[in-house]
Design goal:
The complex is a heterotetramer, with two copies of chain A (444 residues) and two copies of chain B (485 residues). In chain A, the strands form four sheets. In chain A, strands 2-8-7-6-5-3-4 form a seven-stranded mixed β-sheet, sandwiched between helices. In chain A, strands 11-14-13 form a three-stranded antiparallel β-sheet, covered by helices on one side. A two-stranded parallel ribbon of chain A has the order 1-12. In chain A, helix 7 (164-174) links the parallel strand 3 (155-159) and strand 4 (180-184). Helices cover 34% and strands 13% of the residues of chain A. Chain A has 444 residues and is an alpha/beta fold. By secondary structure, chain B is of the alpha/beta class. Chain B has 13 helices and 13 strands. In chain B, the strands form three sheets. A seven-stranded mixed β-sheet of chain B has the order 2-8-7-6-5-3-4, with helices on both faces. In chain B, helix 4 runs parallel beside helix 9, helix 7 runs parallel beside helix 8 (231-240) and helix 9 (333-369) crosses helix 11 (436-455). The longest helix of chain B has 37 residues, at 333-369. The chains are: A alpha/beta (444), B alpha/beta (485). At the A-C interface, helix 1 and helix 3 of A face helix 1 and helix 2 of C. Bound molecules: pyridoxal-5'-phosphate (2 copies). The site of one pyridoxal-5'-phosphate (PLP) has 14 residues of chain B, from helix 5. One pyridoxal-5'-phosphate binds next to helix 5 of chain C.
């Protein structure tokens, strides 16, 4: 096997030094009754070329990007990714290094993550951001755990317009904590109804998503104000489409205490849902309660600028059972990709691209309305929205899939009361012609 | 020609991103505005982020230069104990970049996602064969995430049996994520000491295992590099009291094809695909930490699970006892795909051989260096061996100094000061992909450093000198954190 | 923070390939032997090559380390005069890697090769538009190969007109390939001196142009960075005597969209796609040197030529006057494809803008540095400017020293000692893809070096110190050549 | 345009320094009558994403490797290329550097080329190899020019079994030299008939190809001996499939003076015929007559090993009209790829792979003979051979192409007397099943 460099004679020389005759003898400390008798039943090894063929065949069973138009977002977004990002990100120095425990020979990773942290704080309007979490859902769960730690409370309110997949992850993470989870309904405009907060006390956190699962922009300021009527309560915002902050007010400017979510849309391939990027940012006051790694700026013995992992006393490898989180490996390379992507867009490009997503979405909304589709929610959206397709669309859905169009995500599995409704997503990757085609197919 | 692989050369200074650029410059190819512009509601509109405007070449140079400041597996041996820094095959990256995978939306109708689902289904089967544990979920995004999932399963299991338990036994050699993951599930860790041989004694376990203890978290081989030879007795003791045995499988690289984790009594185990299964670590992730369980615990695994219906793969949510979801989608599919490619490339024979050679390399290093560096446990090891700085201490030289000096010889330092039970630990995990030549050069370097420690300790105390930066002020960094610019 | 972009850091020593490896190790995935083995005829059988056996990781580390010893555009400014080291867009590499192109056999039936033929056909049209010369062949694999093709055409043309000619006029500023290419076609170069303004005078050309002279080879803008403003007179003189005008188009980057080469009387011109059209130079090639000609000379172009029949592209050999073939197939298609992608990305507006900015950058550098480095011709330049070491010479500092010191500032040196007519030439071609920031840093570095030359010349004489190796013994290398190991 | 970094205000600042008002003013040294009036007529610029789509569409018009089996060699060979080669070769440090004129910061390229030169000498059994030529054909042409320079003669003999495309290039290169080109016929066994050499005097060179165009292995020793009866005459061998030297005697051991040819088969994609790799090697005695660049070993001021371009006094930039060749840029990156490929194979792998190519070819030959195809040439072959398909195959040829099989190269355009004959190539990329399928299709 080409990954195993030892020749037979090298093995013999090494065994001789160790004082053993056979490779099997190296395992003498494993009691006989602990050794497996049955070999693992695995397919026989493929050559590099057989593997290529095999994987080509499997990949060919998936939609081919040039042919298929998928109008689904719902937490995973199809955006153009500049070729330079793939090129730079595939450099061995980024790919095959470990967590930067030895800063003198890891400054590349460290500066890249420090820059990522900075971009995230600027994007979200927050003071500090960590080096990444696993994904948007677990970021939200960790945000709520953090709020519970800070407030020493066991009750949170969460909007039902938060991505239902994220809510499930929150449920899972919080199950052993005995935390009470209160669900805030959504109103007919598609936004969170925070009225219930007035009757609720002792909340560790109020959590919403913006743009929310329906694509609607939440009035974060208003909800923050309500939440902060109890000054201990933390306002938590999550997101799955951070590009929205190119045109909309950021969380930091609206009283948010923790902003977290998914960063896949920032230059990371969809890759069937992972790896993505958990983003996590908060106010300075809470920095020592944050989960996850942090890179900080410092100087070396000669006074030169350099970067290190810092505030590690929050973390599991130092603090063990008292750590702020159990996270160790995170999504570092994805954070680097996101930084590259944001760097490539620049502030000007970021705003322009966000606006383009918005404009295209508005175009499709208008066109669908024109042909008589109902758009139940009136709130402002970014690049996603809910549509009620005409009756009997289920069958057409299948036809469109045959035609390589996936016309949105059916909402009934998540919201039974929204049966017949679909969540659509439009990004810069859809040309007007693609949108027109969708409208024509729906109409026909 | 020189013995030292570490040398110097031209590197480039590179400012921070926001110290570059010019307003209006751009590096992104903006698609056409082929629809009308629509104004944004004024009450919601924001100013957008304050990012510098850079050109394409600005970005290319920035990251090319940054990358050149990193040590990586492809540039040299990276014997970071417990991290299994083996070679990451490039062909696996090729597979992950196939457009059908790279661009797949996770919520595609199942019938459009058969290729991806098949990979997940088959990878689960392969990992089940390798670990011996029949049921699994690929959803956890890293080892610690797998631990959390495992502890959630443990928690749910005891809850279902009507007796929630409050404690969990964790050896003093355990990785920090173990107690931390357990705590997240409300368990109080009870630390157990390893014995003089560096392993757990069954009788010590027996002494503390009780009916309020949910089980034990055990790493096998453990972080000292030893196989827990009492394991069968230990798992029996735990099982007899109704507990579960959680195995931290981070060290699976030592025992592929050699130990069946179910046979030795493990109930739950996580794997680190980014260690044992050769997926790249990416400077900190993404990883993948599949969680494997016995048939009895299968109902608790996260949903959705990939199941096979006839010739079709479907994602099923229909597992009412499931702990729920731990990731928005199915975990780090791109990483799973690389591990799948690895297993398909290796097959059973080469995976076993990989473990044998990993153990061979570690024992060889142990034998060659034990006269030069103190070996706290002088006995055969598995895939890694732990030295200390005891012989060097009298010269005022610490493990940290040894690590820093090793950089100047062109090697990444081993893991240091872990496991915590060994004072000044130097934990060397060579992995099987390092050749004898490379290992020999590492040994030469380590011996030279041992000599330097005696003869000119300042060389070590002042190291590294030839790196991009010298030792950094970590205390200052933590005291006055500057976390963004 | 520092002004100097050149700094140092850890690099790795790496032995020669045959100083590594172990017999029987392997790095290649051998396909299955799925057919019978057949013995090889004993009289013809050989022992096979003596290559070391290496593992996959051996090879990966070897080349990763080697690569890290190189300066490249992606790591810094590379103002190598006459070489147009502009940014090489990554998207063009992506296109060249598309399996349909990458794996295409050159002798596929035309109907299976429509995608590739269309690219070649259209690229020819685009280059014809850009140069103004209507007919061309993409076959030459580099600039010099284009020159040879052009000279062959010139030779064939005169032969056909019944009067083979023996001489060719070549300015003293010409690149070495010009006289060398001409000689290959049997022409004797007649050198003509440039005038005080660094260009050719029409009257000097008139004085030597005669009926035994096949024509003139002219670089415009020339290698001093000046536009040959007498060009129309010159081409008229040459044409009047029945000669042809060959244009070395290596400096086309200055005049895209600004000068039509046919209008100013050029008959034959080669382009360097690896300069003007942004294809990467690959540490020495592959390049591509399309040859463009007037309609009159079109019949002489190499075959096959891509022609359009209805909607189909075909390769035609049916050009009886053709000089023949100059490459086994169609030249460096993979390079042509990148240039095609570049032209399609730029369009007319941005190509012209590129030329304007290239000229802007060069003039800016010229203005900013002319007080610090002697400018032999103080007049507006095109895309490059030529300084000398005259001001530094009194301190014992030469152009070579300046170049070596510049490395320590993190820049690739300019072209030095060319063109030959300028003593101690320092030929700076920034290209348009360098931003003002980068250019300003280059200027700062050059000024600092000028100062150092006065104050501490040893810094320059001893440079470079921070590179992987110091100055090398080139004389020794040539005296006792050691060309293989 | 994202490749053009200048902002409007930067342009103004720079113009101010120069003392001009407009970009156009920078061109004042170009007389008005020399400025073009008409803009080049080019398609309007494509965005990165439009370019991707456009190129995807064009590439889709070419055979897709997974679907099509092309049994053509004839100078371009389909071999498996390990993924590591693409990965390593795409490193910016190799791709975006120039010819290594400044050795201190080009040691990566220089050592890589020095190693390439070494591997080439070892493969071909020659003393010295250069850093590359454009391709196999131009290498052969340069070899003959070199022989003419050394011998000061103007006559060469070339085998008609040399790739006809190479011969055409030779004709073109030699046309202005007035050199006499004598063609040596091929015999009924498929090899060169060198008998005519006995009657020919004053030859600068005798040139053959092995494996020759028909895939046959030439008896180089015998031809060398004949050629060297005039001791001034140089024996030149070319090749297009150097992998053959994994199992066959190399040129150096058979009296060859110049060995040259195409190296595409050594890890370089076919890429519609280029870029490939001109390989060129000779005996030490002729090193100063060689065309092309050479990298040599030397030491730096500290005595450390290093590499430089050397013997440049042969080259155009020093010697100008008296240079040994006009070549300047060569195929450096392709040479590096070939070195990587040979390094990955190792000696053992190289031999084994060559043998596998041979075995598979022998299998197909046997099977085709079995079904009654005539194989006109009896000489030993490597991975190519000539077959006479049954009468009326022309029509089937078209059918097979529809079925994504290209069953060889028709020989009549090159050798009218071989009408109805095809040149077939079999490499390790064809599985037995592929060969069986071809045989079945031919038979059916
Ligand atoms: C023994 C052990 N357990 C658990 C982990 C945690 O794995 P991860 O970093 O993937 O979360 C590690 C990682 O270093 C480890 O070494
Ligand atoms: C002016 C000029 N002409 C011709 C050439 C030769 O081009 P190539 O290296 O592509 O053969 C060069 C290359 O440096 C050049 O600068």
């Amino acid at each position: 096997m080409r990954y195993l460099p030892h020749t037979e004679s090298e093995i013999q020389q090494m065994l001789a030094i160790i004082g053993q005759a056979h490779l099997e003898d190296l395992f003498s400390t494993i009691p006989a009754h602990c050794r497996r008798k049955k070999k693992p039943n695995l397919p026989s090894p493929l050559s590099e070329w057989e593997l290529d063929d095999h994987m080509n065949r499997l990949a060919a069973q998936m939609p081919q990007p040039a042919e298929t138009k998928t109008f689904i977002g719902a937490g995973s977004y199809h955006h153009h990714i500049p070729a330079i990002i793939f090129h730079l990100l595939s450099r061995s120095e980024f790919v095959t290094s470990y967590t930067p425990y030895q800063p003198e020979i890891s400054q590349g990773t460290l500066q890249a993550i420090y820059e990522y942290q900075t971009y995230v704080t600027r994007l979200l309007g927050m003071d500090v951001a960590n080096a990444s979490m696993y994904d948007g859902a677990s970021s939200l769960a960790e945000a709520l755990l953090m709020a519970m730690r800070i407030t020493r409370r066991k009750k949170v309110a969460i909007s039902s317009a938060v991505n239902p997949l994220y809510r499930k992850v929150v449920d899972t993470y919080l199950a052993p904590t005995g935390c009470d989870i209160i669900e805030m309904p959504y109103t007919s405009t598609g936004c969170t109804d925070s009225a219930c907060l007035r009757q609720t006390t002792e909340l560790a956190a109020v959590a919403v998503q913006s743009p929310n699962f329906f694509g609607c922009i939440e009035d974060l300021s208003a909800i923050s104000t309500t939440a902060h009527q109890d000054e201990k309560t933390l306002m938590v915002t999550c997101f799955s489409e951070p590009l929205a902050y190119g045109i909309y007010k950021n969380p930091g400017s609206q009283g948010v205490d923790i902003a977290c979510g998914e960063g896949q849309s920032l230059g990371i391939p969809q890759s069937f849902g992972g790896p993505g990027l958990g983003m996590f940012a908060t106010r300075s006051a809470y920095v020592r309660n944050m989960p996850g790694r942090l890179v900080g700026k410092t100087t070396d013995l000669d006074g030169r600028r350099g970067f290190v992992l810092t505030l590690a006393t929050r973390e599991q490898h130092i603090r063990r059972e008292r750590a702020t989180s159990n996270i160790c490996s995170n999504q570092g390379l994805c954070a680097t990709a996101a930084a590259m992507y944001m760097a490539t867009l620049g502030g000007t490009g970021f705003k322009k691209l966000a606006k383009l997503n918005y404009d295209k979405t508005e175009y499709l909304k208008r066109e669908l309305r024109r042909i008589g589709c109902a758009l139940p929610f009136q709130a402002t959206t970014f690049n996603e929205f809910v549509v009620a397709y005409p009756n009997g669309f289920d069958r057409k859905y299948e036809t469109l899939i045959e035609k390589n169009i996936v016309p949105g995500l059916p909402l009934d599995p998540f919201f039974p009361d929204l049966a017949g409704h679909y969540l659509l997503c439009v990004t810069e990757t859809s040309a007007k012609a693609d949108l027109d085609r969708l409208v024509k197919e729906v109409q026909s | 020609m020189t013995d030292r692989y570490g040398t110097t050369g031209l590197k480039f200074y590179e400012p921070l991103l926001w110290e570059k650029g010019a307003s209006g410059r751009y590096g992104y190819s903006m698609p056409q505005q082929d629809v009308d512009e629509v104004p944004v509601a004024a009450d919601l509109a924001g100013p957008g982020p304050d990012f510098p405007d850079l050109g394409e070449l600005d970005v290319v140079r920035h990251y090319t230069r940054l990358s050149q400041w990193n040590f990586c597996i492809d540039s040299g041996m990276y014997p970071l104990g417990s991290c299994t820094m083996k070679y990451n095959p490039k062909t696996n990256d090729r597979q992950a970049q196939l457009p059908g995978f790279r661009n797949a939306h996770p919520l595609l109708p199942d019938k459009l996602a058969q290729g991806a689902l098949k990979i997940m289904y088959e990878l689960e089967r392969y990992l089940a064969e390798i670990t011996g544990l029949p049921a699994l979920s690929l959803q956890p995004a890293a080892g610690a995430h797998g631990e959390l999932t495992g502890m959630l399963i443990c928690y749910a299991y005891h809850l279902d049996s009507g007796q929630p338990r409050s404690k969990i036994i964790i050896p003093d050699t355990a990785h920090g994520t173990n107690p931390s993951s357990a705590t997240l599930c409300g368990f109080t860790p009870v630390t157990i000491r390893s014995n003089a041989a560096g392993i757990l004694s069954a009788k010590d376990v027996a002494a503390i295992m009780d009916e309020d203890t949910a089980g034990i978290m055990i790493t096998n081989p453990n972080t000292l590099g030893f196989f827990e030879s009492d394991i069968k007795d230990i798992t029996e003791i735990v099982h007899r009291k109704g507990g579960l045995v959680y195995a931290d499988g981070a060290n699976m690289n030592a025992v592929m094809g050699i130990v069946d984790m179910a046979e030795i009594g493990m109930d739950i185990l996580h794997l680190n695909l980014h260690k044992t299964f050769s997926t790249p670590h990416g400077g900190g992730g993404p990883g993948s930490g599949p969680i494997c369980v016995t048939q009895k615990l299968a109902p608790y695994l996260p949903v959705p699970r990939v199941i096979k219906q006839g010739n079709t793969f479907v994602l099923s949510e229909d597992f009412p006892q499931s702990v729920g979801k731990i990731h928005a989608f199915y975990g780090n599919f791109g990483v799973q795909l690389r591990a799948y490619s690895y297993v398909r490339s290796m097959g059973e024979t080469h995976l076993k051989k990989a473990s044998q050679l990993a153990v061979l390399n570690a024992n060889y290093i142990k034998e060659m260096l034990k006269k030069h560096f103190h070996l706290p446990y002088d006995r055969p090891c598995m895939h890694e061996c732990v030295f200390t700085d005891k012989y060097q201490a009298p010269h005022g030289v610490t493990t940290l100094d040894i690590a820093k000096r090793l950089m100047e010889y062109g090697f990444h330092p081993p893991t240091i000061y872990f496991p915590l039970v060994v004072k000044g630990a130097i934990m060397v995990e060579p992995t099987e992909t390092e050749s004898k030549d490379e290992i020999d050069r590492f040994i030469v370097a380590m011996k030279a450093i041992a000599k330097e420690a005696e003869e000119s300790p300042a060389l070590l105390k002042n190291a590294p000198n030839i790196t991009k930066v010298k030792r950094l002020d970590e205390t200052g960094a933590a005291r006055k954190p500057c976390l963004s610019g």
